[in-house]
Amino acid sequence: MVLGAKLMLFTCYFCGIMGDELLRNWEKKSGEHRKQYQQWLKKADKNKVLGRLPDLHEEAFSKIDCLTCANCCKNYSPRFKTPDIKRIAKRLKMKEGDFIETYLRLDEDGDYVVKTTPCPFLRVDNYCSIYEDRPSDCARYPYTDEDVLLKRPQLTLTNSAICPAVYYVLERLMGA
């Protein structure tokens, strides 16, 4: 299993993003550019940015394969809202209370999040075992085609260190 984990890590950093210089060493560069992102997010022209997001989102995901990475599922938890809990518990043939007790906890903001990382629904092949019924936060992540990118700058900064697509979109928006 250790070898498999190492191969998956190798895949995460190389296979899904090979051939694009902007994405090479993205995690390191994202950390180095954090203050620049923070300043840029404060001054960004909302209408101009929102007009560019759909194309940049598509461009990023034409270069990045989530299944070779899954950093979001390995390091982060979505919020599980009431409709998510109802839907997923039903899929798993569990009572909602049992689902919550088994998989979720309340975070400091009072939101339900997974108890453990990586996500208990992430399979070893980086596929989600509840993909069709996944939480709405998962379906929308990483918000690179939404105004959330600008409306929630702290979330965007956090996501830029987790997701290569967020890093890519920010870099392209800032002129890289």
Topology:
Layout: H1 2-14, H2 26-32, H3 34-43, H4 46-63, H5 71-75, H6 82-91, H7 96-103, E1 104-106, E2 112-114, H8 136-140, H9 148-151, H10 153-162, H11 164-173
Antiparallel strand pairs: 1-2
Helix pairs in contact: 3-10, 4-11, 6-7, 10-11
Structural class comes to mainly alpha
Helical coverage, percent range:
55-70%
Radius of gyration: 17 Å
Biggest sheet statistics: 2 strands, antiparallel
Distance between the termini: 38 Å
* Helix count, DSSP H or I runs of 4 or more residues: 11
- Rough outline: globular
User: What is the count of structural domains?
Assistant: 2
Mean pLDDT: 90
Uncertain spans: 1-15
Strands, count: 2
Secondary-structure element order, N to C: HHHHHHHEEHHHH
Summarize the structure.
Helix content is 57%, strand content 3%. The chain has 11 helices and 2 strands; from the N terminus they run αααααααββαααα.
Describe what you observe in this structure:
The chain is mainly alpha-helical and 176 residues long. The protein is 57% helix and 3% strand. It folds into two domains: 2-71 and 141-173, no CATH class; 77-116. It has a two-stranded antiparallel ribbon with strand order 1-2. β1 and β2 form a beta hairpin. The radius of gyration is 17 Å and the shape is globular. Residues 1-15 have low confidence and may be disordered.
Keywords:
11 helices; disordered N terminus; 176 residues; 57% helix; mainly alpha; 2 domains; two-stranded antiparallel ribbon
